[in-house]
Amino acid sequence: MLTAFARAFRTPDLRKKLLFVLAIIGLFRLGSVVPSPGVSYTAIQSCLNQSKDSSVYGLVNLFSGGALLQLSVFALGIMPYITSSIIIQLLIVVIPRLERLKEEGQSGQAKLTQYTRYLTIALAILQSTGIVALARGVPSRLFPQCNQAILPSTSLFRVATLVVTMTAGTAVIMWLGELITDRGIGNGMSVLIFTSIASRLPSEGGRILQSTSGFVFALVCLLGLVIVTAVVYVEQAQRRIPVQYAKRMVGRRMYGGTSTYIPLKVNQAGVIPVIFASSLLYLPNLLSQMWTSNQGFTNFVSRNLTKGDHPLYLVSYFLLIIFFTYFYVAITFNPVEVSDNMKKYGGFVPGFRPGRQTAEYLDFILSRITLPGALFLGLIAVLPNALLSLTGGNQFPFGGTTVLILVGVGLETVKQIESQLMLRNYEGFLR
Amino acid sequence: MTVALSIILIMTSVLLVVLILLHRGKGGGLSNLFGGGVSSSLGGSSVVEKNLDRLTIGAGLVWAACIVALGLLLKK
Question: pTM of this prediction?
Fold first, then answer.
């Protein structure tokens, strides 16, 4: 295991990529702790200490690595980017023009990405305005129990500076994520989410250890280990559909004649559904911030949809995860396309005719095999929260969502490193 | 002093946002995962992209310096 790491760092181009990712992560963390200009750092720290159980913005705060409640430069984190990609992806299904763009291939895809980025900036402006508005006033609504002024001066000019800075911070995060995808290793967005969540773990663990007994802490750790094992187990599971290729002559060479398989993973979607579902559940919260005049709506949202242990939250979370799993699989794996490609190169699944019948077969298998995957994702994300709320403590950060994201992103990235390593060596991390 | 710095900060912020949006989004986000396929850049980045990178980094540095300076001034 360790020799594999050493080898990864000895490979020059891989080392460059790894160091690049580490440098970007360092920048990202640095920006998450630098307070925005005009925010009183000392007031925020004392407020954070006073309101220990500030889980109203728990998940969002977690996704931004604790930067949100500190009102740092990167307060909004990667959240606006995720939200805008979800919105664009959902709109593709609804709006025909976008659908045509998607089918256009490379250039259309680039245009869609560009739309996502514009929308990110728009969302960033909205959210930063919202969070700054929440931080105004002396018992600010961000920290209701704390009566210190977070923003010493609330003149329009100061507030505007704050909003613009945070928006630019979000744009920079977006760029950092793209740089990781482009020149580093792994998917930038998930690596950044991974960083924020991982940075919260030590302090949250310490808090659990302080507020409860050592026994509970050990139990939570044990639960985490069990979840990690289960996630790795399911993540690697796949069904192999045999494919036979016919022999064919091209010029003087002989091609094909081999038998391979199409791997269909039980959890084809990875961690994306979890990220999507949790950030979609945050949307009502955001709306209630914007739309404070409607008191009934605000109360309903803050009562039912912000705490991780409320039944309504849990149920809608579960259902959303299942929906997004199917949605994502349907977008990424197109049985008709796969079977057409196979037909083109003279491949067939033994026992099924090429073309329509193969496509139907693949579709049948895929929709069946995704069900346990979706149920598993939903259960892992929801169960620990439900269990913990039964025992009284609301240890949100050690819930299933975080572990799922950590393990999923970790596995994905290690696999990418491994495939790079494979270019030079045979043995990798995963035996 | 603080007013001048704030104005510079606002200007660099806007500039930074515009510069970042000018970048060809190289499928950094989830849209790349969404059936974007393998979109390996063809033959590295062009001269325009390279200059854009340099400009963005420069604007980012000024932006960061402004934030730190303004933060220190306002803290007192």
Answer: 0.81
Contact criterion met (CB < 8 Å) for B74 and A175: no
Contact A158 B14 (CB under 8 A): no
**Structural tokens at position B6:** 């704030």
Asked if A71 and A37 count as a contact pair (C-beta separation under 8 A), the reply is no
pLDDT digits (tens, 9 = 90+) for A244-278: 887 777 778 777 677 888 888 888 887 788 888 88
The reply to whether A209 touches chain B by the CB within 8 Å rule is no
The predicted pLDDT at position A258 comes to 78
For residue A143, the one-letter residue type is F
Amino acid A237: pLDDT: 87
Q: Which of B23, B36, B37 sits opposite A175 (nearest CB)?
A: B23
pLDDT (tens digit, 9 = 90+) per residue, A128-161? 888 888 887 776 777 767 777 778 777 888 889 9
Residue identified by tokens 């931004």 is A64
C-alpha–C-alpha distance, residues A407 and A66, integer Å: 20
CB A182 within 8 A of CB A390: no
CB contact A117 to B (< 8 Å)? yes
In 3D, which of A186, A182, A112, A125 has the Cα closest to residue B53?
A182
Question: Of B13, B25, B70, which has the smallest distance from its Cβ to A168's Cβ?
Answer: B13
Phi, psi dihedrals of residue A253, rounded to the nearest 5°: -100, 155
3-class DSSP state for residue A12? Answer: helix
User: With an 8 Å Cβ cutoff, is A56 touching chain B?
Assistant: no
Question: What is the length of chain B?
Answer: 76
Residue with tokens 């604790």: A66
Distance of CA A234 to the CA centre of its chain: 18
DSSP A373-411: HHHHHHHHHHHHHHHHHHSS---GGGSHHHHHHHHHHHH
Query: What is the C-alpha R_g of chain A?
Result: 24
Helices A79-94 and A106-135 pack at an angle, to 10 degrees, of 130
Inspect the interface and report whether the beta carbons of B13 and A34 lie closer than 8 Å: no
